[in-house]
Amino acid sequence: MTPPEFLLASLGSCAAFYGVQYLKTRNLADTGVEVTVTSEKLKQPARLGNFRIHVVCPVALTEEQTEGLMCGVHHCLVHNTLLSPPEIKIELAIKKSAALPA
């Protein structure tokens, strides 16, 4: 898998986890949730954007349960991280054994 595919998998597995947790705590289902995540490759700078999370629930839900499941999926930690981008600092270190001879 490529790093962008890992990002999509992380988002999808997080959404599925929170969706299953909602269903499980209400004794509605504990298996069968399906999640697909897609995105578009954007430019300037090159990045992923326009994410779409498609959740398939294995059981029929009332309107209230549907809203609850959607709320649960929205609590996904990865989803919330992408909505409020964190500060990212990049540090570079060179191994002493890789240093150029003097």
Looking at this protein, list some descriptive labels.
single chain, alpha+beta, GMP Synthetase, Chain A, domain 3, 2 strands
What does this structure look like?
With 102 residues, the chain is α+β, with helices and mostly antiparallel strands. The chain has one domain: K homology (KH) domain (GMP Synthetase, Chain A, domain 3), CATH 3.30.300.20. Helix content is 41%, strand content 19%. It contains 3 helices and 2 strands, in the order αββαα. The chain has a two-stranded antiparallel sheet. α1 (3-25) packs across α2. The longest helix is centred in the first third of the chain and has 23 residues, at 3-25. The chain starts with a helix and ends in a 19-residue tail after the last helix.
Short description:
It contains three helices and two strands. With about 100 residues, the protein is α+β, with helices and mostly antiparallel strands. β1 and β2 (about 45-55) form a beta hairpin.
User: How far apart lie the N and C ends?
Assistant: 40 Å
- Fraction of helical residues: 40-55%
Can you count the helices? 3
- Classified in CATH, the superfamily is K homology (KH) domain
> Overall pLDDT, averaged?
94
Structural domain count: 1
The biggest sheet, with number of strands, parallel, antiparallel or mixed sense and barrel status, is: 2 strands, antiparallel
